[in-house]
Amino acid sequence: AQGSIIIVSSVSGLQSNRGNPAYAASKAAAISLTKTLGEAWAQDGIRVNGLAPGLVPTKLTAVTTDNEKRLAGALRAIPQGRAGTPEDMAGVVVFLASPLASYVTGQTIIADGGLTLS
Predict the structure, then answer these.
(1) Residues with active-site annotation
(2) For position 24, what pLDDT does the model report?
(3) What angle (nearest 5°) sits at the alpha carbon of residue 84, between those of residues 80 and 89?
(4) Which residues sit opposite 6 in a β-bridge?
(5) In 10 A of CB 9, how many CB atoms?
């Protein structure tokens, strides 16, 4: 068998998420699942990797992205000074699914504009 599985988690799986502990715990579990399945299925030619987005406008983040004051505060914490886009996330997923990442397994790539660097 050959294949690539991409598990989407979140930077919330790597740090606390004030007010939403269940979400943070579930995303931490997704990161751990990525590692565990990456190891378990590597011999079968199946690569399992992950994507941990930072702030991207979605229904879930609308409470922040649709509020000018909250959005400004969130963007101050991101070194690139902007929210991510679906296209930013798609680029990571395309890389992970492609032959360019043929020797990558069990890894979660953080795409957050630098949010988790400090």
Answers:
(1) 23
(2) 97
(3) 125
(4) 49
(5) 22
